[in-house]
Task: structure prediction
Amino acid sequence: MLNIFYRFPFIRILLFFILGIVFQYYRDISSYFIYISILSILFIALSFFSFIYKRYEWRFLFGLGLFLFLFSSAAFTTKQAWTKSVWNIDSAMYLYEGRIVDELARKPKTYLCKVEIVSAEKSIAQEVISKKIIIYLPIDSLSKSLVPGDYLTFYASLKPSELYLKKQSIAAIGFVQKNKWALDENKKRYSSLKLRALATRRTLLDHLSEIIPKQENFSLAAALMFGYKNEMDRDMRQAFANIGAGHILAVSGLHFSIIFGMICSSVSFLGRTPRSRLMKQIFLLPLIWGFAFLTGLSPSVIRAATMLSLWGVGDAFFRKSFTLNTIGVTAFSMLLYNPLYLFDVGFQLSFTAVLSIVLVNPYLVRLYETRNPLIKYLWDLCCVSISAQIGVLPISIYYFNQLPLLFLLTNLCVIPLTNILLLLIPLSVFLVSLFGNIPILFWPLNKTLDFFVWIVKSLDDISFGTLNSIQINLEELIFLFLVLFCILLFLLKKRIVYFYLLLILAAFQVFYYLCQS
Result:
């Protein structure tokens, strides 16, 4: 496992890029960009001369030049991305015009509205145009009718956003009074692909609300199928987090793999010949991206669809494509688009879970083999759950200060139900669009949702199901990752050197605590 950096070049590229992002984030190195870039070009040029003149001892220069180029590129793109979230305007009232770029989120007394500024007063226009902000609008009939793509004119006093919002490229935040804003009906709604996707999702959610009378059940179905969590109350979200099922509420790799598996099963009659495999992927991949479109094209959705597309292309040409290189390409592409994704909790949890599954799951699966399809399904599900939990454990503790002890039981209960719902929900939406709301047709969906909610609440009621108030800092997070890595290497490779590394880490940690005290 230690040679993965040599076998998978995209992992090396990704690590070099991440290093540049981290350096720029914690220590501004923008004044050195030009020098690092010149050095990278010089080293790469020298490496080509060494090849021509057969000076192979200089081969390392190409790798060094590539590292410096990726490091500098990552730092530069991070600097550019971070400037989008900088807000240097005073807190006075100014006139702004903005375009709504996401679904409004209902709060107890307001609507949270994410807006991209398209114009402002001349004195501040140059500083604020194209920046994204969050404004809170009072709840009334007009704000309730707003949809992504609408243009607003408003007076507001905006203040710089908190750090966690800056990482999402949100520059400022503020409240807009009832008589201080207006909808600009003269401007046509902006029709980007993202906004078209959100509009389509809204139409499907309207159909879904017709056939699911219970608000609690509707919010669950909307989150499972479309990644829309604005209607879900805080208690239900916390219940999912407590039992270790928060990943169910975010449309991600799990949902895509379930849907992909369903579609693959429906076309299995085509066989496994090279031509049939290619035809299947030509048929399947547009459907996967169609589903991504219907869920609103969020970063987690694009992440999962990209990874699955790479797997599909590899499968079509009989290549093993679901490897660390696949993960590296997907992560690198997303970070190249927006380096601040690196500091997004969802991004970190998603990729650490997938990395852990790729590295650990094959070893766990081989511990027990059976021909019984039901037992094999349950065993595979247990192995995937344990593998993913190993990867996300340190990050979950660091951000959420809790450890779900019933994650294995939770996944055994809710993932099969998720499979059923991901089949029933689109079927029900299709039926209501054809025949209208005939309650008997949607009885299976509503009863399954009732059972799902009951399972979640029952597991959440177990008093020993979660360890809370676990506090760790960044240094302890890194230490925990290293300990888990050494333990896995020792158990899987059975080499004493990894046990010695574990003892060294333990000694360093004890020394660190003694110094702190």
Summary: The chain is about 60% helix and 10% strand. Residues 407-435 form the longest helix (29 residues). The radius of gyration is 25 Å.
